[in-house]
């Protein structure tokens, strides 16, 4: 009865496309397939937010958000690896209108005998992750050159005060490419909070997918 009411309320927004029931461009999933769809969305343990983001692009059924939440809460692995500490408010940034104009970068690891360089675009939240054997300024610059060669140069890079980012080599790299480099200060420790948050998400997902507990930041 409840589902019928939902469908009735959205009857003006429903349509048939090649024999498939759609709602606002999303596939309407019958009740018999919903459990399977939830399992597919849950692959990699992306959490409630990650599952909802994919669902809201591709599929729909009545109370899909609540079903996703229940599915994640029933997953032992997700509950074991969910954040234990409250989120610290991020430093307030204005979101650039132009994608790829400001990037936030940070490191995490070691994990699987590697460190990882995390690069996130502040506008689109597009994420790039690169494995590194050693955390050096020269290797960091090499990876950024490769990234910028295919994605273009940003206007600004935001990082912490790690030695790789405060080195003269990194300064020359930014200056020669007309990139403004901003580092976090002791007065605003969350200046690079966007990259730090992505590092935490990356760590949590790697732990969830591989069932390990010794991932360090």
TrEMBL record:
Example of a GO biological process term: DNA integration
Domain Integrase catalytic span(s) in chain numbering: 95-217
SUPFAM superfamilies: Ribonuclease H-like (SSF53098)
Record Pfam families: Integrase_H2C2, rve
EC number: 2.7.7.49
Coiled-coil region list: none
The organism's place on the tree of life at top rank: Eukaryota
UniProt-recorded Gene Ontology molecular function terms: nucleic acid binding; RNA-directed DNA polymerase activity
Signal peptide: none
Descriptive protein name: RNA-directed DNA polymerase
Gene name linked to the record: K02A2.6_87
């Amino acid at each position: 009865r409840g589902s019928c009411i939902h469908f009735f309320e959205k009857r003006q927004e429903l349509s048939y496309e090649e024999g498939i029931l759609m709602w606002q461009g999303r596939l309407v999933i019958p009740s018999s397939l919903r459990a399977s769809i939830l399992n597919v969305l849950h692959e990699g343990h992306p959490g409630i937010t990650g599952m909802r983001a994919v669902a809201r692009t591709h599929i729909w059924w009545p109370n899909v958000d609540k079903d996703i939440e229940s599915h994640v809460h029933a997953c032992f692995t997700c509950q074991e690896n969910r954040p234990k500490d409250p989120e610290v408010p991020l430093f307030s940034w204005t979101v650039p209108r132009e994608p790829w104009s400001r990037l936030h970068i940070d490191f995490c690891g070691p994990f699987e005998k590697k460190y990882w360089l995390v690069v996130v675009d502040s506008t689109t939240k597009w994420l790039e992750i690169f494995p590194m054997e050693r955390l050096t300024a020269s290797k960091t610059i090499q990876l950024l050159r490769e990234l910028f060669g295919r994605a273009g140069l940003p206007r600004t890079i935001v990082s912490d005060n790690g030695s790789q980012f405060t080195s003269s080599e990194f300064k020359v790299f930014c200056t020669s490419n007309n990139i403004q480099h901003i580092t976090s200060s002791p007065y605003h420790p969350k200046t690079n909070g966007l990259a730090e948050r992505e590092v935490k998400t990356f760590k949590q997902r790697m732990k969830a997918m591989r069932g390990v507990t010794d991932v360090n930041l």
